Amino acid sequence: METTLIKSLYRETKKFTDKNIQISGWIRTIRDSKSFGFIELNDGSFFKNIQIVFDDTLENFKQISKLAISSSLSVEGVLVLTPDAKQPFELRANKIVLEGNSASDYPLQKKRHTLEYLRTIAHLRPRSNTFSAVFRVRSVAAYAVHKFFQERNFVYANTPIITGSDCEGAGEMFKVTAMDLNNIPKKDDGTVDFSKDFFGKETNLTVSGQLSAETMALAFRNVYTFGPTFRAEDSNTARHAAEFWMIEPEMAFAELKDYMDVAEDLVKYIIHYVLENAPEEMSFFNSFIDKTLFDRLDNVANSSFGRITYTEAVDILKKSGQKFQYPVEWGIDLQTEHERYLTEKVFNKPIFVTDYPKKIKAFYMRENEDGKTVAAADLLVPGVGEIVGGSQREERYDVLERRIEELGLNKKDYWWYLELRKYGETKHSGFGLGFERILMYMTGMSNIRDVIPFPRTTGSAEF
Amino acid sequence: METTLIKSLYRETKKFTDKNIQISGWIRTIRDSKSFGFIELNDGSFFKNIQIVFDDTLENFKQISKLAISSSLSVEGVLVLTPDAKQPFELRANKIVLEGNSASDYPLQKKRHTLEYLRTIAHLRPRSNTFSAVFRVRSVAAYAVHKFFQERNFVYANTPIITGSDCEGAGEMFKVTAMDLNNIPKKDDGTVDFSKDFFGKETNLTVSGQLSAETMALAFRNVYTFGPTFRAEDSNTARHAAEFWMIEPEMAFAELKDYMDVAEDLVKYIIHYVLENAPEEMSFFNSFIDKTLFDRLDNVANSSFGRITYTEAVDILKKSGQKFQYPVEWGIDLQTEHERYLTEKVFNKPIFVTDYPKKIKAFYMRENEDGKTVAAADLLVPGVGEIVGGSQREERYDVLERRIEELGLNKKDYWWYLELRKYGETKHSGFGLGFERILMYMTGMSNIRDVIPFPRTTGSAEF
């Protein structure tokens, strides 16, 4: 007999009602009395379980009723509607086969576990309700990202993970090497001889695919990356991981305004798509993780995002009368307290803050006419602060060259990036969205370690 | 005026015929006579260009007619059908604005360039016909992979890139470190003190997400990874890169046969999807890269893949009378010459070869009843040889433990992998498909360096 998925039973109940079917899955709970028993079975296809009812007409009744949680079964039986019960239907078993045993010390017993404890059993935690919901939402959201861009004719660009260029300039990098660390080849002056390494030069893990993505945008017009990026920053916070996934679109013939339009559409699209395609999981988060979740997402998905300049933002903050830990002056980098005040107290919806002082932004952002600011914009959302950062890119060869020199960077490292401006300079814009950041926002999970299957953080690369 | 994409002009020609429209893009070719000129413009949205006709009624006629290739323009004009010409329509310009200049030494002039040369200008080569086609097909194929699995309710699992576990056992690994290589902390015995490194232990770049994916499959039933993997193998061939993307599905409650069904469906799905969604690019490959391409793909997409055991394959090869460089005996690892003989001369279609000797396969593959073979299967396709490898996984705790010991591996490294068998052991299967390998197969490109935007190979990590 063909195996039916529990997801199908919930989505197409009618089709299976009063029919004999076969399912397979893992025991989530089991209780028995003398002559009958109940099993909550989960088959991984769906967030919810199905209730199995079995009794001592089964020849292996005794064996089954003593099974440990997480044992795997295949079950044949009739699907019966149960309009008076909590669950919509149950399976009345006429045959249960034990597929695989579980030990009685299975760590995920029915009682509540702390998230900290569950991190120590990362190989088992996807079987818990919380992480079943988190990682399915992660998958659905990832697909939403691809769907959004592919339907808009963006080309998916796989930019390199190992980078030989030192010019990404977005933070501390991990080194990649094939050398024997106990016996590193040295040059005459005693320093490392990278010419003996695998690539014949020093290489690192990428911190951003942006610069490579720009080369693709100037061929395909609209492209996006979606892949892992890395920071070797020793910041042991709930919001930082050493390995995380970034979405980095780049668009030719696009100005700052165009980037903001696409970013706003993207954020709304992901939220709508996940609400529609993982409703059980999202209800779970709203009930058990963050009771304000639906209100929050609703506000983002259905409001028109605000847009103010950095200069206006600074004015608002200065006039607010609010006491901030970091005092506000034109020229400072906005802190999370400022960002949250603006988006939560002043606007009560997501806002883009645009045209930041060039001193606090990267060399590749397009200089505005005023000579003081750049065409950059960050998207701030209530409850979190910054969630997207982007800019129009400096497409003018001479201005870019000057900025590289002003910042004391080495022009030689940027030869190919500069050549993009020499051969068909074209205005273009792009942004970066941290995938884990939007997952945390959408699930209410407050630690980045809990939205990545096997997180890598300072001092921890387990599993 | 809104900008229209060239893709829309080709896909919805009627809508724009005889209308005044605006487009923007880069000059691919330009020629002029005294009073008029022609520009082939490409806007990145589509493989094909549009022909722009302009004349000296434009006030900047002289400026435009002297522009270098790759300069970017925005053009307003009327779209006119040209039924007698090679191209279906042209744009009669009434306004051309220079968006960005290109230098006259632009390296991608109209003449043919070798693929080797184009690799040295990887930041510009996506603008050539060949690489425009390759990288768009790469994007379309990637989306096909996600679509295939998401529509079948598989959960996308982002398995870690940085791995602290030494147990993947699929080849040489790159080391990842945040230590200063010029000043590596040492222990008293003179060896590296990894406790001082970022993660407090030795870490590497993953060679496979499989073991992590198995943890997810035993929660979600059906999962897949799709991400970068790495090999530090010093093999300077046309088929090996140090960084490449792998698709690794894992399925609980699935036997070897089920894996083969899914792999066959997947390969056919990707081919169909790409043929349907990138027809211009695929025609280009069939005309200019490999004239047997369509026949080859047709054969794969429309045949029912064969299935034979390794033992049968060895018999066929031995009885073939064919002279092989590597003689055939039961127990050998099949070489490409053997694989190609089987799939090209004997079957003339893709075949799965199953049940290999356990001595030549990995420890995690399920041991068959005969004690000599494992439930593994490789998919061989004409023209290439192996394209997919997979197996049923050993779910029996005691057998897996024995295999780990037999191979002299360290049981401690596998504690969590073994625990998957302790807590709800469940039969399951999975496979790996090298993304670049299927891209090479589908495009006819014969060097892996030419299907990756910025390839990383022995001695080369440019850009």
From TrEMBL, chains A, B:
The keyword Acetylation does not apply. One of its GO terms (molecular function) is asparagine-tRNA ligase activity. Gene3D superfamilies: Bira Bifunctional Protein, Domain 2, Nucleic acid-binding proteins. Pfam families: tRNA-synt_2 (PF00152), tRNA_anti-codon (PF01336). It is an enzyme of class 6 (ligase). Residues 135-453 form the Aminoacyl-transfer RNA synthetases class-II family profile domain. It is found in: Cytoplasm. It catalyses: tRNA(Asn) + L-asparagine + ATP = L-asparaginyl-tRNA(Asn) + AMP + diphosphate + H(+). Keywords: Aminoacyl-tRNA synthetase, ATP-binding, Cytoplasm, Ligase, Nucleotide-binding, Protein biosynthesis. Its EC number is 6.1.1.22. Its main location: cytoplasm. Coiled coil: none annotated. It comes from the Bacteria. PANTHER family: ASPARAGINE--TRNA LIGASE, MITOCHONDRIAL-RELATED (PTHR22594:SF34), ASPARTYL/LYSYL-TRNA SYNTHETASE (PTHR22594). Belongs to the class-II aminoacyl-tRNA synthetase family. Homodimer. This is Asparagine--tRNA ligase.
